[in-house]
Amino acid sequence: LEGVSSKDTVQKTSHAPNLSFAMASISTAFNKMLLSTDVDFKRNPSDMSLASSCEELHAADSAYASPRPISLLVSEPVDAECAGDDEHELDSLLLSKDEWDFDLHKLDDLTGGRPLALLAASILSDRGLLDELNIDRDALTAYLAAAEDAYSPDESAVSFHNSLHAADVLHGVHCLLNTPTLTGYFTPLEIFAALIAAAVHDVDHPGRSNTFLIKTADPLASQYNGVSVLENHHITTAFRLMEQPGCNFIAGLDAPMQEQFHQLVTRIILSTDMSKHNACRSAFASIVEQMQRIRGDTPLSTPTGDGKSQRRSSILAHPLEDPDNRASVLGYILHCVDIGASTKPWQTLKPWVSRIFTEFFNEGDAEVEMHLQVGELNSRKVDIAHTQKGFITFVVAPLWQLWSQFVSPEQCRVQLENLRFNMEAWSGLSGSSPSSEFIEEYRLPRPHVNSFKREASLSAVVGLYPHGRQPRKVTRQQSM
User: Fold this and answer.
1) pLDDT tens digits for 158-200?
2) What is the pLDDT of residue 325?
3) What digits encode the pLDDT tens for the residues 214-255?
4) What is the full DSSP assignment across 146-181?
5) Distances (CA, A) of 373 to 108, 116, 155
6) Which residues does 371 contact at the CB level (< 8 Å), separation at least 6?
7) Chain-centroid distance, C-alpha 82
8) Is 383 within 8 Å of 430 (Cβ atoms)?
9) Catalytic: 161?
10) Among residues 162, 186, 62, which one has the least CA distance to residue 113?
11) Are 3 and 415 in contact (CB under 8 A)?
12) How far apart are CA 166 and CA 171, in angstroms?
């Protein structure tokens, strides 16, 4: 398990995000969205049918049934000094978003439980993709806010698959896309699609697994014939959000590029289906083999059977010249990051494990209540440390070791070292305490959505779109 720290390999920008916004100012685009629709995206997890319209899918919460300008949501007095402190902290924190150990929980706190929209805007703006692709900033602001709202804020029901997890995955995809080996191969549209896919890959997640939905004959399972049920639901929801007034941020793209965007987002999100894990890894392994031939890691000669060998052509196409391979790599990146909490530092990992097992146990409780067989990981008697050792050994580590072969161990040392440390830590904890105690000890509650900070963070999104910036350049031509 070797490699180098992400801080040694990631290109940094010297331009601090422009967060000099008035904390009481309102995003014009977000106000327009609120005033033009009565749809609230905090849906009831039990209402999961996709047979109806988007309004029916996302029934309006009675507390927010009447659309209001976001300024009217402010329920706390504005403390100018406090607002200035938050602005400064956000400014400083976002400068470290290229680092693998980025403090996402601090961002969650500073944004009042709404980290996704602000982080997405910061990343997309810094990469220069909005100007490159003629993306409508107002529509993107509205879309990111709507997408964050579509993630359940109810920690008791959805403790893991929420906007914090989406922000975490978005950040991880952003970091891996900075890997030097990938520089110059992906088009701006491919990078943009990968980042949007990361942001919405679990949107409107009900806190239940595909297995549970299928065996309970949930309407979603019927809608998708039991195939990639949640993944298809996330994709459908993500695109339906774009149909809301003022949310179609790709309207400036021509028709072929819009179609390509849809295809990429769909394919990338489908890669997160664990039932496709082996297929995803196998497809990527073939790309790694091509890469190794390019580097000379494998022989360029073929045995002839008579003790001699025939030299193959040394002129081999780079695997990332193939757009199908590039799409596969983007899907693999999202899959690695989606289940890659074990590649984070130990203190960061523990709250994530507490969250996912809270969801598992909630599902197990529902199975008991419905007199169904309880899933192996859903039993409150499970040894969490033991399961995590197995998960790292048989699932996570092989994924990341293959990734290290693709980009070189030096370019993902921090992830591999964290995996090794966390594996040893779990070994020391195995059988040491009941799962319930582990969950409670390492539980890290999210902040309640704070109206003032909610306004501030959404207003900040607009502040992250200054003109005259010098963003990170994307060199590959869009036509490739």
Assistant:
1) 999 999 999 999 999 999 999 999 999 999 999 999 999 999 9
2) 97
3) 999 999 999 999 999 999 999 999 999 999 999 999 999 999
4) HHHHHS---TTT-SSSSHHHHHHHHHHHHHHHT-GG
5) 36, 36, 25
6) none
7) 30
8) yes
9) yes
10) 162
11) yes
12) 9
DSSP sequence for 49-90 = --SS-HHHHTPPPGGG-S---GGGG--S---HHHHHHHHHHH
| Regions of the chain with pLDDT less than 70 | 1-86, 297-315, 432-434, 448-480
**Active-site position among 15, 88, 161, 335:** 161
C-alpha 295 chain-centroid distance: 31
What is the sign of the dihedral through the CA atoms of 314, 315, 318 and 319? negative
Q: Which two tokens stand for residue 177?
A: 């896309």
For residue 303, the surrounding DSSP H or E stretch is strand 301-303
> Quick one: tokens of 315?
């002129």
Residue with tokens 């196409």: 317
Quote the tokens at residue 318: 């780079």
> What's the pTM value of the predicted model, to 2 decimals?
0.78
DSSP characters for 382-415?
A: --HHHHHHHHIIIIIHHHHHHHHHHH-GGGSHHH
Question: What pLDDT score does 464 carry?
Answer: 59
Q: Indicate the residue type of 387.
A: T
Tally Cβ neighbours within 10 Å of residue 61: 12
